[in-house]
Amino acid sequence: MTGAGPLPAPSTPLALVTRRFLRHRLALVSTGVLAVLAAASLLAPTVEGWLGVDANAADLFNRLQPPGPNHPLGTDEAGRDVLVRLLYGGRVSMFVGIAAALTAAVLGTAVGLASGYFGGRLDAVFMRVTDGVIALPLLPLLIVLAALDLQKLGFSAETAQSEGVSLYRIVVIVALVGWTTVARLVRATTLSLRERPFVLAARAQGASALRIMTVHILPNLASPVIVATTLSVGNVILLESVLSFLGLGIQPPLPSWGNLLTNAQELIWDAPALAVYPGLAIFVTVIAFNFVGDGLQDALDPRSQERGRR
Prior knowledge:
By secondary structure, the protein is an all-alpha fold. It is globular.
């Protein structure tokens, strides 16, 4: 009798997801690109110290210098190092994109989960509110909200004029209008899950609605929420860039890719590279997040393997 050899070990769900994701070459490359951008942005203070420059210190005697050993990407209109400010801008733009997308995902998940599970009047109210937010013109609404005077809303003058308040305000504003996609997606999935046998069994055993939603339904919503959140990060970065470009987003001296573009628009003919660098960074980051979202969608969807075999 010949030995058949040991049976292959069963693959875990995480291993299957990883295997599918690794087959998506564009997503894999995009993950590497995002990792490099994130690492470079986090190392901005180290690069600043290594070059011996100050990201916010103006040096009018060295303005608009070409790339060189002391300034690898040259200097801007105020004599500041472009590379260091670009890295600091990446920290701000990527933080805004990720933080706003996560906040919107949490809010949308809570609304969609409650709406889909309880149904009835609560579902009707939540969905009408969702439809109302979707119907609002997004960019004009963001411009109006970003232009509000925080002191007139009850905040102290010190808080309203602090350096980081514009950053957190953009996160809150984008999250308040960006939760609708996740909410509708979660609601649709919850409507299907609440009639599944494992949910009916938990309900028959006397489990509370909160326990059923958090323990039995919420884990099954992880895949669509992760994909939707990843895809929305790029859109948030674009919105932040647009608001900063209009002067209503991240306020100087705090750099972001959007306000770097704003500063470069008057020098587009004299120093076009000042607009190319942040524009290229925005383009690459948004495209990379979209490809990663596509890869996660294929990896987390159990039907993707069947579609690939057809």
